[in-house]
């Protein structure tokens, strides 16, 4: 592995390259924080995919892409004299030191959960009016629900036992089914949302990341469905021309594989 000095030299080299690109490359010259935003989100998802695939070489590459965006935003900030990369790093360090009094102060903690509770309390001391302010509005709904629940737990608003949460899931399912039977379309979306929210809560008690779990299922379905498509092609058929029974044969083959 690289020494700390080599790591610092590599980061300085990245800053120099960023300076060159911003000064000389027509594309890089045109970029703004707004134009980079959607690309940053895309790069973050690509990093997430690499992590789920346990492809460490790809993780390394995607981390580089995310880091490039961080450096790019800091470069733009320096051009308007609002902030630079040193300000970003120093503010982050100050925040981490303040929120870890059990490391940089005399606070004693028993476990990870107490660290989380202290973290949320310290954030409120920083001027936040709600513990939920730290949940970005633009998060996908499933991820947002998970973060909301995690934040509420940090201040003690939570169920005590997994069984209580599972009972809540069953209660919400019954309420959804009642609206299905009543054909009450207006209430169906709200009840379906309640079911999803309670299932995400249950996943948290099972120590499962619901986003990761769903994405793994997505990948599994894609793999099996593409196997089905390949088998249909080998038979010279279109899926739309096959019966469900025919497709099930290959689907079950894919499951075994």
Descriptive report:
The chain has helices at residues 4-24, 26-30, 33-52, 56-79, 85-98, 101-104, 112-125, 141-154, 162-181, 185-205, 210-234, 244-256. The chain is mainly alpha-helical and 257 residues long. The protein starts with a helix and ends with a helix.
**DSSP strand tally:** 0
Sequence stretches where pLDDT stays below 50 over 5 or more residues: none
Order of helices and strands: HHHHHHHHHHHH
Class based on secondary structure composition and strand pairing: mainly alpha
- Terminal Cα separation, in Å? 38 Å
Helix content: over 70%
Rg is 24 Å
Average pLDDT confidence is 92
Largest sheet: none
Strand content: under 5%
Q: Can you tell me the overall shape? A: extended
Number of helices: 12
Q: What would the keywords be for this entry?
A:
single chain, mainly alpha, 12 helices
Structural topology:
Layout (H helix, E strand, L loop, with lengths): L3 H21 L1 H5 L2 H20 L3 H24 L5 H14 L2 H4 L7 H14 L15 H14 L7 H20 L3 H21 L4 H25 L9 H13 L1
Helix pairs in contact: 1-4, 3-4, 8-10, 9-10, 11-12
